[in-house]
């Protein structure tokens, strides 16, 4: 990049702050505050995402596909929460929160956000294929119906091994997505000149330099999502907005202002 004098400016990655272990709980409280301040818009996104998760988990009719799509839904969750990041950003800037405006949140940096959405979609496609392969390796003829899924896994001789292999594979994909998205998408929304690769590297650095608090935040997200699924997706209506809002505050506290 050149300045008005014609000199080339040196590029610097966004600086990452050092976080304490109580940071994730602080983000969670702020996420709840945002939900309370803008319940209509927040719960709209929560409802839409909960319905999307339900549809993905039940349209296939086969447990193997349903399991793959439900877990894959978690991988693309950071992108789907874009409107929630915008609600928190508007509140932080003292702007009025209007649902219509948040629906077009990513247009200010559409190329970079769109490119990252493509990356997430590709990763989800790969994960679905990997998930089906793992199922096929342990269940001849395909996994049984959703209603008998847990029973058949427990009854199977290789049920415990299957769970361990499946969770290990899922953890690898989830860690990859988490490392590159924990602060990248809020940053792409916040900084219209930010490119996808720089945002992903910054996100990775945030995890690398703050591994313990960031992994605690990941555990909190998983627990909230699990509670949402355990309540027949109804809990996701509240859990997803809280996570989305909190993720914005995680970005703002982790990355130095541009």
Overall description:
The protein is mostly helical and 258 residues long. It has one domain. Helix content is 72%, strand content 0%. The protein has twelve helices and no strands. Helix 4 packs across helix 12, helix 9 packs across helix 10 and helix 11 runs antiparallel to helix 12. The chain is globular and about 55 Å long.
Report mean pLDDT, rounded to a whole number.
88
Give the SSE string: HHHHHHHHHHHH
Q: Which spans of ≥5 residues are poorly predicted at pLDDT below 50? A: none
Radius of gyration: 20 Å
Helix content: over 70%
User: Hey, roughly how much beta strand do the residues contain?
Assistant: under 5%
Distance between the termini: 16 Å
Number of strands: 0
The number of domains is 1
Structural class by secondary-structure content: mainly alpha
| Main beta-sheet strand count, sense and barrel state | none
Principal-axis shape equals globular
Helical segment tally?
12
Summary tags:
72% helix, mainly alpha, single chain, 258 residues, 12 helices, 0% strand
Provide a short characterization of the protein structure:
The chain is built from twelve helices and no strands. It has 258 residues and is mainly α.
Fold blueprint:
Blueprint: H1 23-37, H2 39-58, H3 63-80, H4 82-92, H5 99-102, H6 110-138, H7 149-155, H8 159-181, H9 184-190, H10 196-209, H11 211-230, H12 236-254
Helix pairs in contact: 1-12, 2-3, 2-12, 3-6, 3-8, 4-9, 4-12, 6-8, 7-8, 8-10, 9-10, 10-11, 11-12
């Amino acid at each position: 990049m050149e300045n008005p004098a014609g000199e080339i400016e040196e590029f610097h990655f966004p600086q990452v702050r050092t976080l304490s272990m109580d940071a994730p709980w602080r983000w969670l409280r702020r996420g709840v505050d945002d939900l309370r301040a803008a319940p209509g818009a927040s719960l709209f996104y929560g409802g839409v995402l909960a319905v999307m998760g339900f549809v993905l988990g039940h349209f296939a009719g086969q447990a193997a596909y349903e399991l793959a799509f439900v877990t894959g839904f978690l991988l693309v969750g950071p992108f789907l929460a874009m409107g929630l990041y915008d609600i928190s950003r508007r509140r932080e800037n003292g702007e009025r929160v209007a649902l219509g405006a948040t629906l077009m949140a990513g247009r200010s940096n559409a190329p970079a956000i769109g490119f990252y959405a493509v990356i997430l979609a590709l990763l989800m496609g790969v994960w679905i294929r990997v998930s089906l392969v793992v199922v096929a390796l342990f269940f001849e003829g395909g996994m049984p119906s959703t209603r008998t899924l847990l029973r058949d896994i427990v009854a199977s001789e290789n049920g415990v091994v299957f769970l361990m292999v499946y969770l290990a594979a899922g953890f690898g994909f989830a860690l990859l997505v988490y490392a590159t998205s924990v602060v990248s998408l809020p940053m792409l929304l916040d900084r219209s000149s930010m490119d996808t690769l720089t945002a992903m590297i910054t996100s990775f650095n945030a995890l690398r330099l703050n591994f313990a608090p960031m992994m605690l935040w990941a555990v909190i997200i998983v627990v909230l999502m699990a509670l949402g699924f355990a309540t027949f997706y109804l809990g996701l209506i509240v859990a997803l907005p809280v996570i989305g809002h909190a993720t914005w505050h995680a970005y703002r506290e982790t990355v130095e202002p541009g």
